[in-house]
Amino acid sequence: MEMPEPDADVVSRKGHLVERLQNALPPGAVIHDTTELRAYECDALTAYTCPPLCAVLPTSTEEVAAVLRICHDEGVPVVPRGAGTSLAGGALATADAVMLGTARLNAVIETNYDDRYIRVQSGRTNLSVTGAVEERGFFYAPDPSSQLACAIAGNIAMNSGGAHCLKYGVTTNNLLGVTMVLMDGTVTEIGGAHLDAGGLDLLGLICGSEGQLGVVTEATLRILHKPEGARPVLMGYDSSEVAGQVVNDIIKAGVLPVAIEFMDRPCIEATEAFAKAGYPMCEALLIVEVEGSDAEIDEQLGLIMQIAARHDPVELREAKDADEAGRIWLGRKSAFGAMGQINDYMCLDGTIPVSELPFVLRRIAELAQEYGLAVANVFHAGDGNMHPLILYNANTPGEQEKCEALGADILRLCVEVGGCLTGEHGVGIEKRDLMLVQYGPDDLDAQMAVKDVFDPAWLLNAAKVFPLAASKSHRIAAE
Amino acid sequence: MSPISEYELAEALAGAHGPLRIRGGGTRTLDVDGGDTLSTGQMTGITLHEPGALTLVAKAGTPVSDIRAALRAENQRLAFEPMDHRPLLGTTGAPTIGGVVAGNVSGPRRIAVGAARDFMLGVRFVDGTGRILKNGGRVMKNVTGYDLVRLLTGSHGTLGVLSEVSLKVLPDVDAAATLLLSGLSDTQAVKALSAGLGSPFEITGAAHDPEAGETRLRIEGFANSVTYRAGRLRDLLAPFGRAEVQEGKAGTAETWAAIRDVTDFADRAGDVWRLSVKPSDAPALVARSGAETVRYDWGGGLVWLLMPEGVDLRANLGPFKGHATLIRADEETRRALPAFQPENPVLARLTAELRAKFDPRGVLNPGVMA
Fold first, then answer.
1. Could you read off the pLDDT of A72-99 as tens digits, one per residue?
2. Which of A2, A22, A113, B53 could connect to A354 by a Cys-Cys bridge, CB 3.0–4.6 Å?
3. Residues of A in contact with B191 (CB under 8 A)
4. pLDDT score, position A406
C-alpha cells in the first residue's frame, strides 16, 4: 500500500516539535520514545505499520486545539486516532505525522434523561456510553462489534454501524452535536441537544469524514430506553437463495426485526468447531431478532416463524429463554474469533441491494475458487452489509497480495450490482484505490473540495479515502 | 426553464448567465435574490422500487403523492411523514420529492424514526457549474467517501439542483392509537411527553396544543402491541391525569396530519416561525417569545409559533441553543429578517466557502440561507 513520502524536513525537526507540544500539554501527554511509539504503529489493519513521529494524548478540547495550532503552524501532518480498531487503516500514521490519540478524552460531561441525550468526550468507548446510562434503563444504539474497545471519536469518523442498525440506524442517525477543532486550532460547536441543522447539515458531513475535516472532541448522542425484551430465532436453509428469499419475505410482511444476521456453511463449520453453539450444518443460517414485551415478541416471532416454515427450513429454533437466546447468538458473536483461530483473514465490508444476495454469494464462491482461496460469509442480511472473510496465510509469500486482489474483485462486484465498497468500516487506506470504481473523477473532486474548505493545507489524515493520484493536485496545491 | 432530463438540467446550469430560483412544486417560499426560475417539475418518475429491500429511487420532480401511491400499493410508507406546506402557506402546486429532500422536510415521526436526512441513501445532482455529480447510492449502509447526501439534504438548492434521490422506505403499520391528556400546562405537557418518549413503548408522535389544553402521544404497530402499549402508557402517565385512548388507524392519521401540517395556523393572521430546541427548554422560550399562541411537536423539541406580524422572534428570545426559522411572513418582514437562523462565525465561513466550491458563480438560489 503506497503512502506519501514523509517530509524529511519535518522529521528533522522532531526535537523542536516535541518540545513545543510538551510545553502545551500536561506532563506525560507527549510520547516520542521510539519503543513506546510502536504501540501506535498500526490499527486493526495490522498488515500495514508505520510508527508516527510522535503521539499526543490530550485531555481537553483546549489541549487538542493547542496541538493542532502548533502542527498547523509547523506544517506537520496529523493523524487522529480513536481506539485504533479501524479495519481499514483509518488510523495508520506516516513517519512525519503527529498521532493525536483520544484515549484520555473519556469523561461523561452530561446525561439528560428528560431530553434523552448524553454528552461525552469523544475518546469514550462505545460500550461505556451505554454503561453510563443503563442504570436508568437507557442505551446508545449503534453497536459495532468492536464496541467494547472502539471510541466514539472513531465511530463518528467512520459513521459506524452495527448489528442492530436495521431498526436504530448508524452513527449519523444517533449523533446530535459535536465540538470540533479544525486543523488551524479553531473550535466550533455543530448541532447540540436539539434536532436537525438550522443551516447546512455540517454534522452529517463531519460524520464519516474519516478524521479528515476536523477533530471531534465532544459529542452529544441520542439515548433510548431499552426495549422490554428481545428474542432471536435461528433458521437454517439448504441454499442461500432460499435464505435470501426469507429475508425478503420477512421485510415485505411489515415486520422490522432489530437484526437479521446471515452465516454461510464455511462460517458455520468454523464457528461450530470453535464455539460449539449447536448450529445445524447447512448452506445458510439466519438469526432474526425482534424486540418488545413478551406478547409483542410472540406476535412478531409467530409471523416470522410462519414465513420461515413456508420455505422448508432444515432447522427452525425459537429461543424460549435467555439461555437459549445466548446460545443462538454465541456462534455469530464468536464467528470472527473462530476464523482468526484457523487462519489469517481479511474482512471485507461491501454493501449490496438485498435482492442481489444469492447472485453475489454465488459469484463470490466462483471468484474464491479462481483465486484458490476460501471465503466465509457472515453479515447483516437485513441491510445488505456483507462481511466476506477471505482466509489466507500471511506467512506464505504472495498470499496476502492474492487475498487483496480477490478482495478488490469482490468489492467491484458489490459496486456492479448497485452496492458500495464499504458499509460501515470506512475507506481508510484499504479501499482508497478502489474509489474510482464507485465514483467518477468529478464525484471525488467534489468531495475533495470539501476537504479544501475544512483543511486547506491537507494536513489532517491526508493519505486516506482518496486515491493518492487523485488527491495529489490538492495536496500539492496545499503546500 | 424546466429541463426534462439530468442532461438538460446540466446544460441549463452550465449555461446560466445569472441567478436562478430553484423550484420543485412551488409549495414553499424561498427568498431568492432575483433571477429566472429553474423548475425540476418535468423530471419525474420512480426509477426503482424494491419493497423487499425497503428502497425507492425517484427523479427529483416526482410528486410526493405519486410516491405515496406506489408505496401504499406495497403496504409501505415514507416514515418521516413530510409535512405538506400548502395549507399553512396558502400555496398551490404539488410537493415534489426533490423539494422534500432539499428542505429536509419531516413530520411528527421525526422523533422516533428520524428526519428526511435519515432516510436518504443517495443523490444525483448538478452543481452550479453544470457538473453532474452523485453521492451515496441505493443501499442502506454506505460510508464510501464523504457524506454529501446529508450535505445536499436540507441545502435548499444552494449547493446543487437534485436530479434523483434514493430513499429508505418502511413498512406501513397495522394499527395506531392516540393517547390524549387534557389540561396540562406547557411545562407539565413536555414532562408528560418526555416520560412517554423515555419509556420502552415506542412513541411515534408527541405533541401539545396549549390553546385546547390537549397533549397527544401516538403509538403504532401490530394491533395487539398497540393495545398493550396504550395500556402501559396510560399507567405510566397516570401522574399527569387520566389519558383517553383513541384507537383507530384512520382517525389517528387524520389527527397527526393536522399536527404535521400545522393547519391550526392556516387561517389565522400573523407570522409563523419554527423553533428547534431541546424539549425541556421549550416552555421557558415560549414564555418570552411574544407569540400569540404555539403548537408543540417532537415532544417539545419543535415549536410552531404564531407571532404578531413583523416581530423578530430571535430578538425576543435572546441567545438560545437551537434554531428559529421564519416560515410565513409578508414580503416586508422577509426582507427585514433572515429566514434562517444566523450561524456562528466559524460555521458561517465554512458554509460560504462550501457554497463557493459547489457554486462558484453564485447562480444557485442566491440570498437563501445567507
1. 999 999 999 999 999 999 999 999 999 9
2. B53
3. 114
4. 97
Please enumerate in sequence order all residues whose Cβ is within 8 A of that of A322, keeping only pairs 6 or more positions apart, or say none. none
| Same domain, yes or no: B165 and B23 | yes
Note whether B88 and B188 are same-domain residues: no
Measured between alpha carbons, how far apart are the two ends of chain A, in Å?
23
CB contact under 8 A, B139 and A170: no
ipTM confidence: 0.97
Residue A461: Cβ within 10 Å count: 30
CA-to-CA distance for A430 and A423, rounded, in angstroms? 14
Q: How many separate domains does chain B show?
A: 3
Q: Does A135 touch chain B (CB under 8 A)?
A: no
Q: Is residue B66 part of a domain?
A: yes
Contacts of A264 (CB under 8 A, 6+ apart): A240, A283, A284, A285, A361, A376, A377, A378
**Interface membership of B134 toward A (CB under 8 Å):** yes
DSSP string covering A119-143, please? EEETTSBHHHHHHHHGGGTEE----
| Closest alpha carbon within chain B to A430 | B144
Question: Residues 6 or more apart from A306 whose CB is under 8 A from it?
Answer: none
Q: Which residue of B has its CA nearest to A114?
A: B194
Domain formed by A8-101, architecture: 2-Layer Sandwich (3.30)
User: Residue B155 is nearest to which of A200, A254, A422, comparing CB atoms?
Assistant: A200
**CATH for the stretch A108-225:** 3.30.465.10
Domain extent at residue B296 = 265-336
Read off the pLDDT of residues A265-295 as tens digits, 9 standing for 90 and up.
989 998 998 888 899 999 999 999 999 988 8
**Domain A230-331 grouped into CATH 3.10.150.10:** no
Tally helices (H) and strands (E) across chain A. Answer: 17, 18
Q: What is the torsional sign of CA B134, B140, B146, B148?
A: positive
The CATH class, in words, for A343-416 is alpha beta
| B204 and B230 belong to one structural domain | yes
Distance, CA of B95 to CA of B28 (rounded, Å): 9
CB A96 within 8 A of CB A6: yes
Q: For residue B129, give every residue at least 6 positions away whose Cβ sits within 8 Å of its Cβ, in sequence order, or none.
A: B13, B14, B359, B360, B361
Q: Which of B140, B137, B65, B133 is nearest to B99 (CA)?
A: B65
Q: Which of A95, A100, A84 is nearest to A185 (CA)?
A: A100
For residue B82, give how far its alpha carbon lies from the nearest alpha carbon of chain A (Å). Answer: 14
Q: What does the alpha-carbon distance between residue B307 and residue B293 come to, in Å, rounded to a whole number?
A: 7
Q: Which of A115, A189, A255 has the most B C-beta neighbours within 10 Å, making it the best mutation to test the interface with B?
A: A115
**Domain residue ranges in chain A:** 8-101, 108-225, 230-331, 343-416, 439-478
Query: For B267-312, how does the pLDDT look when each residue is reduced to its tens digit (9 = 90+)?
Result: 999 999 999 999 999 999 999 999 999 999 999 999 999 999 999 9
- Tell me whether B226 touches chain A (CB under 8 Å): no
CB contact under 8 A, A196 and B117: yes
Q: Which amino acid is at B2?
A: S
Are B292 and B329 contained in the same domain?
yes
- Tell me how crowded residue A322 is: count the other CB atoms within 10 A of its CB: 11
